[in-house]
Amino acid sequence: MKVVLGVAGGIAAYKACELLRLFTESGHEVRVVPTRDALRFVGEPTWAALSGHPVTTDVWESVHEVPHVRIGQSADLVVVAPATADLLAKAAHGLAGDLLTNTLLTARCPVVFAPAMHTEMWQHPATRANVATLRERGAIVIDPAVGRLTGADTGPGRLPDPAEIFQVCLRVLRGAPRDLAGRKVVVSAGGTREAVDPVRFIGNRSSGLQGYALARTAAARGAEVTVVAANVTLPDPAGATVVRVESTAQLREAVLAASAGADVVVLAAAVADFRPADRHDVKIKKTDGEPEPIRLTKNPDILAELGQRRGTYPKVIVGFAAETHDVLANGQAKLARKGCDLLVVNQVGERLAFGTPDNAATVLVAGGDPIEVPRGPKEDVADAVWDAVAARLS
Ligand code: CTP
């Protein structure tokens, strides 16, 4: 496929080199179109060598080839990463002072913007309005990640991980649906940890891969996504807001807060059913005699609580269940008991589920037929969930 990689003049331009490599190594033909200021950060020879194509910023070179029209017209995808506040403003207003802005005006293919800038600039009403305009016109604008910015400060404004931007682009190239546009979605991911003492905890093997696949795919389908991540060490999914928690109590609080006004809540996190009844304030020391047993107490069931509390929102509640035996019977009983709309049932074992990139599942549907998802990437399970959610929302 023919991809145009637009690069605007921001410090994150160096990360676009990695994005470029991901495209070229997967067989895409990439034309890099930097702005003049982008070349202050990464020079023309780097882009030319990595893309295998000549690189120019203005419309006055190779005029006989009419590049200001041709590059945009022939593209299957235009992705601008990083997109600066200035570039977003120019694109929203249709300015055409250089090759990149000309390309944006002539492109009729999908356009993805991955903004990166300081938090104040991202949150400024002018930028908000420009992003809203671009989205209204059908462009995909990936919300920046939250984290360390150029200086010592942190906040929303970081360019998402290049591999995450790449995944969004691949989905767009495949023509994936945008059927969650305007929907507010909450996903819990990872596994909770319950403190025994300041250095020890009771936890589980959940990596967060399935929850992050759900978040990534929902964002790519147009949703506004909040991920409540319990002890996940993966890169933030592109376009999602990540709230980090550790214990079940923290997860409960964050999920309930994020669920107010949400259309969909998906609880993919592996939540500890029990926690130590007494948390020791100091480290438990080895003693000569038998160790003290750890007494456990029950944690609140967040999924069941959401099901009971449900008013107008959330419209759709999705639970997960890992079962080792009588998978479908246990799953159907759990679906009814927890009061959710969909329950994704995994059979644990055979190298499926925890920590692996693949999964196979059955999506149980309240009042409907189960949907079998054959073994494949966790994105496939995620897409099957969103297909069923979108059907329920409409
Ligand atoms: N869950 C939750 N709060 C808990 C435990 C689980 O919200 N305290 C959610 C999980 O995120 C998951 C679903 O409930 O979406 C299924 O969890 P599971 O532990 O399998 O359900 P249980 O009712 O505990 O059933 P089991 O008897 O199999 O332990």
Notes on the protein architecture:
It is a single chain. By secondary structure, the protein is of the alpha/beta class. The protein folds into two domains: 2-173, Rossmann fold (3-Layer(aba) Sandwich), CATH 3.40.50.1950; 184-393, Rossmann fold. It is built from 14 helices and 19 strands. It has helices spanning 13-25, 38-41, 44-51, 67-73, 85-93, 99-106, 119-123, 125-136, 162-173, 209-220, 248-259, 302-309, 327-338, 378-393, and strands at residues 2-7, 29-34, 77-83, 111-115, 140-141, 145-148, 154-158, 184-190, 194-197, 200-202, 224-230, 240-245, 264-267, 274-276, 296-298, 316-323, 342-347, 358-365, 371-377. Strands 12-11-8-13-16-17-18-19 form an eight-stranded mixed sheet, sandwiched between helices. Strands 2-1-3-4-5 form a five-stranded parallel sheet, sandwiched between helices. Strands 6-7 form a two-stranded antiparallel sheet. Strand 6 (145-148) and strand 7 form a beta hairpin. The longest helix has 16 residues, at 378-393.
Please describe the structure with a list of short key phrases separated by commas or semicolons:
alpha/beta, 2 domains, Rossmann fold, five-stranded parallel beta sheet, binds cytidine-5'-triphosphate, 19 strands, single chain
